[in-house]
Design a protein that fits this description.
This protein is mainly alpha-helical. The protein has one domain (3-32, 41-170): Four Helix Bundle (Hemerythrin (Met), subunit A). It is 63% helix and 3% strand. The chain has eight helices and two strands; from the N terminus they run H-H-H-H-H-H-H-E-E-H. It has helices at 3-22, 27-31, 45-64, 74-78, 93-98, 104-122, 127-131, 144-170; strands at residues 133-135, 142-143. It has a two-stranded antiparallel ribbon. A hairpin with a 6-residue loop joins strand 1 (133-135) and strand 2. The mean pLDDT is 95.
Amino acid sequence: MEPRDLLTDAFTRIQELYAEVAADLTAELLRHRPREGDGPAGNSIGWLLWHLARVQDDHLADLAGTDQAWHDGWSARFGLPLAPDDTGYGHTSDQVDRVAIEDAALLAGYHAEVHGRTIAYLARVDADELDRVVDRRWDPPVTAGVRLVSVEGDCLQHLGQAAYLRGLHRG
């Protein structure tokens, strides 16, 4: 098995899980932020799914040397009051509230396009590409392979969180 085949399988599983978690979510469920007692509210399913797609879009576009799907019309479709390059990283509770998504199909459509772009990039990944240094701010420097594994892990974590929240509501 070629590394690109393994990565394609992993990211395809992410897309399938994303579509499953996003399916038939109501606006209320997308916006609900869990809270225990007087403690701070957690992230909503809508925010988790949006953030996951934004990070995958941002990081994979950077690796591929292409534009983000977000900047090809998706940002306007969502109409969120955020900076154009915002991915949700480091969001405060107020910023999480601004990601008030009410349409699960919009999220699923955006992620499907991000997935398509991811697969297009992965089709040309080889050993040299995986070893290419993409970020020298770290020690050791980050390679494309390390970045791909990082994005995959981040996506799976957020999908697990969103699936857990969805399950809580189904009781």
